[in-house]
Amino acid sequence: MDQGTMDADCIALLPGVLTFLADPKQSLPDDTCLEKLLDWLTNIINEDDDRNLLDQQPCLLEFISSMCASKTTDPIILSFTLKLTGLLAATERGFSRLEERGVVQEAFACKAEAEGDGGGGGVRAQWGEASVRCGWLLGLRALLQHHPAMLFISQRGLTKLILQLQRDKSLFVAAAANQLLAHILNFPHPPMTEQQQQQQQQGTAQENGSSGPECNTATVTAEIVGHVGEALVSQEHFRVLQALRLLALSLPGCGAPLLGSVWRGALGPLEVLLEAGMNKLSLPIMEVLHAASTTELFSQSDARVEELMRATLRVGEPKTAIQCASAITRLQHCSEPLKRLAVGIVLQPLEFITGSPLQILPNGSGDAKQANSHQPALREQLCQKSQCISLLSLSLSSVAELSLANSLFVDASVEAVTGAVLQLLKVGLGQSPSPSPPNKAYIQLIGCSRVQRCGLDALISLSSCEGVRCLRQEVLDLLHQCLQHPDSDPTVLQKTLQALLKWICLDSSDCSEKTHFLTQSLFPALMKRVCDMHWEVRDSTLEFITQLIVNSSDSVAFSGALRGSGIVSLLLACLDDSEGYVRASAISALGQAVTAAQHQGETNTNSHHSLPEEVLTRLLAILAQDTEGFPRRAVLKTVTSWLSRPRPPPDLDQSLSALLTLGIDDFDWEVKVHTLELAEMVMDKTLSRGSLTEALERLQEYGVFGVLFKGLLDCDRPVAQKACQLLLKLREVLEVKGESAGSPPGDTPTFHLQSHQWGEDLLRKCKGVNGDSDWPREGVPAGDWPKGEEVSLREVVGRLDLEGMRQALARSSDHAMASPRSLMEDILAVAQRSDDNAVDCY
Amino acid sequence: MKLYCLSGHPTLPCNVLKFKSTTIMLDCGLDTTSVLQFLPLPLVHSQRLSKLPGWVSKDGAINLEKELKECAGRVFVDSQPEFCLPEKELLDLSTVDVILISNYHCMMALPYITEHTGFTGTVYATEPTLQIGRLLMEELVNFMERVPKAQSATCWKNKEIQRLLPCPLKDVQDVYAWKRCYSLQEVNSALSKVQLVGYSQKVELFGAVQVTPLSSGYSLGSSNWIIQSHYEKVSYVSGSSLLTTHPQPMDQSSLKNSDVLILSGLTQIPTANPDGMLGEFCSNLAMTIRAGGNVLVPCHSSGVIYDLLECLYQFMDSANLGTAPFYFISPVANSSLEFSQIFAEWLCQNKQSKVYLPEPPFPHAELVQTNKLKHYPSIHGDFSSEFRQPCVVFTGHPSLRFGDVVHFMELWGKSSLNTIIFTEPDFSYLDALAPYQPLAMKCVYCPIDTRLNFHQVSKLLKEVQPLHVVCPEQYTQPPPSQSHRSDLMLELQPPPMAYRRCSVLGLPFRRRYERIHILPELAKSLVPSEIKPGISVATVSAVLHSKDNKHILQPVPKPVPVPPTKKRKRVQEEPPERLAPKPLLNGAVPLDPFLATLHKHGIAEVKVEETPDGHILHLQAEDTLIQLEEDGTHIVCDNNEPLRTTLRDLVLRFLQKF
């Protein structure tokens, strides 16, 4: 069914739905249906700008005007109506149609104009409801897409009301008002003449009676800019906050002349606010400055954005200063001294706790003095456990961010910072930091997993920095201690393993030091963790082993160490773990171990020559017997990855047929999809070698075709989709290769369809037996399959309407349920049901 | 009040508290770390141990080859192991009235105290403490008597010789207090002096003090003790735990408002968290079994082993331990497993509730039923025929010097597939392993000590707020190996009073009150007068009767009329004359009104001098002084009785009488 018909069907239902919504006795089936309805209408309006919905559906106009006029409309419905009106008036045509009928006026202007006169109007009557105010703002926001709309706002004097709503007691309303104000400020400005600019500055545009579009916009924006200036010097915290939020929202989108005037109005008050040292306002001010930094203001020295940023680092509590500093370090373009200062402040808690001087800022410099101005308060806060943890976490996550950006540390400080992070992690393990810090605040961090996690994250990021290689051994030793520590939290262990992987792989060369670390430290620790009490730890350890083998597969020394460690036999034991996830991870790890052994097989005759065979036997058993899906899926993924290698295990060929058969008959759809992926790999490999006929025979032997047809008939959509995709691929190969090889049409494997279950199913489905509605209607016409004869693969593939199936399967399975039609039918069904219920009651 | 400290071991205390005419011994711990200086006692003849060279000093001057043997580069004493007894010379132990036992680990020195010191008092303990304590003592005796060693080494203890011996023998302290193990007869005799008590049961000692055991949460039947009189309260906190293990949880609230809190038995491994250690234990065990090796767990036959078995019970399936059997070998293995199941009322709530279900409180019963856990009295007999490897063996003694564990060390020590996992925190594992070196088997140290750690104890003390804390000196500084860890010590205000072996501490509080009962008829005769709102006083004339530390005021007996006698008149003992008590005065003489009164009575010339205690009034015309002080008024007036009397009467006007 095409989209147009679907919409036409739905539009036919619209009058009924609107009648339902207008009926005060009816209640909605659920809270989201109005939003869904709006979404659908938005799509319709956006998709087809020329089709005027209002002309097609006069009921919309009726609905809107009656809802806006009635004083008893449900606030929810009224809010919906306002949003709908805004939507319909978003085009100039729609706007004028609605204006002709006085609907725009009724919906959006009556409140502002009739203030205090007590006249009619649903909006005015229901104005006390936050949802109505919100709907009003959102509707206005939607319709403000063209100059007539701006003229409307300006002429009706709506700006004043919007500015009032900016301080509404409902935060949703206040936020929506700010969005709308920002939208107005970012509204495309028509170029102004010099005279107009002067008029705007003098605020005389309106008095002179000019009413051109540019003047309307200018008047409105001037009002808003003036308001922002006033609000910023207000004593009312919320008012200042809202003004700051509006600035942060609007600055990035402001055009050139307005941007300047907005900033001119804000700069002075911002300086005053920072001077006053209001801790609570530092972050919102920083957001404004951040927004300003994305504009041309940042490069204008008289805009003084950087100076203000510097000032945010001076005021407030250490935590706020660090947050501001962290925001500065994220800036794309920022002067080197400011960035240095910000980095210096961000790193202060780390420096203080570990006692390692990081020397980001030159001693005695003005910046160093500024950074130090927070120190007494910082020291005090670091002595309280909760503050200390939160400050350090902040500092460490900034380190992680900084190191990802790579160029932000200067000179040797990467090494120093890494050293400090290491010290901190040592403290977490209960060791004494060296040099000994000036006080004992560090004691409260012993065993604190939050700080450990943040530290490890930082360490992970730091591994990508240049100049840290010299600390590699020290880092590895510490990570090994974390891994060994009996009290390490599972989440800490997981991060430790991630960090280990990064730092081990930092140096890909084989050296005795690395091998020594692997055999003496890492492998014994991993072996213990593979036997851990917590399955999460066992699982992450196995995942780590998998990754480690993947990353080290070309290292001869690594493979040798792995073989000698006894890990592989532990991995085999893990196949019997009680937890499905662990078994799955063990399968992946073993898969990689086998691959690694194969890879090194040429150079070493190893003791694990029977490993692939043993693993394969175990994997087949798991696929056949395991009660959980994860291990079975892992088996197929592992085998597929083996096949993708240049040298798959030699015995694999004999087991493929069994693996494919077991896999496609599984209950789990993901296992079936993985089976089809395996089938695809088998197809790719086989078809790339030898003649087509031979290849098809081999595929027939493996049972690949049966798998594909079974998959196609599967009731799980992703399975059928994948099978369909593979059959299409196969058909293409048959066509292309068949033609080039000049093989006769019948020279493909043949099937006696009736002797296969899938064949029977295929026939039955094609004939539409049982009225199976799942099967795409675009299927093959019934009745022309040869009965009782062998059918060739080419014929089967050719007769199926695979493209049709692909299209049908591409639609999500809930496409019918989630359609607007179903939505409207649901709404109407409620009306129906309530009638029935009324009868039932008697 | 005094505290005599007879043991320096912080977790095996033995202190004596003298309080209100009672002498109370708090615990009777036996320091067994001394056995580490001795050679192991093998159950089966050991070629290796029997052929060790004797020790002779380098210059040949001292020859102790009979007593000392060199083994694995160290010198060990070759005799029956000896234990370090509590100090016996510090005070006369026959004067001890009662012994309070807090848990079965802290009573192992009991026979040494009750049997050979003239002790005639009573020992108080809970039932599980007594029963399991008995098992541990019997096991110890059994371990020693099974491999008798006639030889007793004494020469090396000579101070002059000892200081010439190699380390660590040279530095061993208090060797004079080392004694061989007691006999079963002594055990029975000592334990016959035990009187059983239940938690919160109040036991009166001679009417002077009351002692009460409280649950301490550490082991089955373990207790802390409250020792209190009417006005003083001493809390004795020994091994306690706040972790949820098998025993009843610790009763903390009853420890509140103590004048003195004696604190001992904190965790010996403050840096090891029991949960983490349990995890280590399980993963090392699983790793060894999966690799085909055996696991040896040297442990006590009661206590943490119950928790270990429970943990393994839960871990077994997920760890895929296969069919590897668990063996528990101890002369008292069976009794220990059975006893644990019957002390329902001493268990944690969770286990108590299982008593009402058809399942035993501890899951080790199921392990036994399903043959996964087998227990044997020793390696001889049935065990040898059913022994299967790989396996896990739990056996004693954790010092590795005696018991069946010695055999397994000899048997498994040479293979790197096997692992020994130390879970008991009492012994240094390196010292324990010293005579078995070189050792191929893997060693894992995961001490599980569930007793309070410093963090928990600080929190506890903040809550119960004792006025003074007394503790072993080890708790007042960080552990020597972790000198930067100032969180691993007690930091209190006022600082705790620290003790060491042989310390005698005067506890810093004075007894100020004593409770006295007044008989009703005497009370009825009193005439209270209110001196301040809510405070009334009365004078009492009575006879104080004190018996069994109880004091009673009785009315003065009326004089018995003496029957007239015709006998020769002789000097009779007159009964004390019953005089009505003179009224007592109280109140203060206010200066200004008093001066006004003097003035009214014609005494105008008064010079007032202020003194630290009050005022001195010079009546200059009369040449008289009146000293008005807080606790007295003196009139100094020579030869003018009428004036004195007048002045006295004037003073009395301002005072109250009763």
From TrEMBL, chain A:
It comes from the Eukaryota. The keyword Cytoplasm applies. Residues 203-216 have a biased composition (Polar residues). GO terms for cellular component: cytoplasm; nucleus. Keywords: Cytoplasm. The keyword Cytoplasm applies. It is found in: Cytoplasm. Residues 191-216 are annotated as: Disordered. GO terms for biological process: cell population proliferation; DNA damage response. Belongs to the BRAT1 family. PANTHER family: BRCA1-ASSOCIATED ATM ACTIVATOR 1. This is BRCA1-associated ATM activator 1.
From TrEMBL, chain B:
Residues 552-583 are annotated as: Disordered. Residues 305-433 form the Beta-Casp domain. Gene3D superfamilies: 3.40.50.10890, Ribonuclease Z/Hydroxyacylglutathione hydrolase-like (3.60.15.10). Pfam families: Beta-Casp (PF10996), IntS9_C (PF21382), Lactamase_B_6 (PF16661). It is found in: Cytoplasm; Nucleus. Its main location: cytoplasm. Coiled coil: none annotated. GO terms for biological process: negative regulation of transmembrane receptor protein serine/threonine kinase signaling pathway; regulation of cellular response to growth factor stimulus; RNA polymerase II transcription initiation surveillance; snRNA 3'-end processing. Residues 571-580 have a biased composition (Basic and acidic residues). Keywords: Cytoplasm, Nucleus. One of its GO terms (cellular component) is INTAC complex. It comes from the Eukaryota. SMART domains: Beta-Casp. Belongs to the metallo-beta-lactamase superfamily. RNA-metabolizing metallo-beta-lactamase-like family. INTS9 subfamily. This is Integrator complex subunit 9. It comes from Alosa alosa.
